[in-house]
Amino acid sequence: MSATQRVQRTAERLIRASGRRLPEEERAERCREWSAELPAILHDETVHPKLMRSVRALSYSAGIALTTRRLSRASRRPQSAPGSAWRDGAVSARPGNMGLRATIGLASWLVIIFTTVSLIRAFPHPRGWPVALGLGLAVAFVVFCLADIVRAPAVRYLPKWAWALICVVQIPGGGIIYLSVGRVGRSHSLPPGSAQSP
Fold first, then answer.
1. Strand 155-156 relative to strand 90-91: parallel, antiparallel, unpaired?
2. Residue 196 phi/psi, 5° resolution?
3. How far is residue 50's CA from residue 33's CA, in Å, rounded to a whole number?
4. Fewest CB within 10 angstroms: 7, 45, 72, 132, which?
5. What are the counts of helices (DSSP H) followed by strands (DSSP E) for the chain?
6. Is-above-0.85 flag for pTM?
7. How far apart are CA 9 and CA 103, in angstroms?
């Protein structure tokens, strides 16, 4: 048995093993299609040296194995798998009231800044309670935003983990941006074709 035949057999075995992850009605046909490509790859005279053809055939079958494994995992994954709350994908559709949401977010940000500056001016020599109050409110706001991100069926534009990072890094601006732009209200149904990616 030549080296080319050994490579072809190895690649065919890998393809057959990959085919077991496919639905039974598609398995045989897909394996035949994929295996039919191997002789063309292994006898392609434009590729030199011969070793490169073997490498291409094996990488082709390894790519099929990787793809079928990912597809198999995706099909078995429940709609909301435990522990996947932070990995959920984002809905790309714009909210219908984008201008209003952005205006409310900006107004909230300005109210927080105005209130903070007013407290600092009203109590020029505080004994620590304004700082403790501010920190407590900031922590409570971040916890609220993170809890909302976890419970949300979907978010807009970015994955959930990215919105969580923005909320933690930029307080309170990140949370305000998430609530005004990134949040999908639970009372609104998701647009068709906006299913989350795993």
1. parallel
2. -75, 150
3. 23
4. 45
5. 7, 2
6. no
7. 64
User: CB under 8 Å to 116, separation ≥6 — which residues?
Assistant: 134
DSSP 3-state of 57? helix
The mean pLDDT of the chain is: 76
The pLDDT value recorded for residue 176 is 84
Contacts of 111 (CB under 8 A, 6+ apart): none
Q: What is the pLDDT of residues 62-72, one digit of tens each?
A: 888 888 887 77
CB atoms within 10 A of CB 192: 7
pLDDT at 185: 65
Tokens standing for residue 87: 């990995």
Given pLDDT bands bounded at 50, 70 and 90, which one contains residue 82?
A: very low
Structure tokens at 66: 């990787």
Query: Look-up: residue for tokens 């490169």?
Result: 52
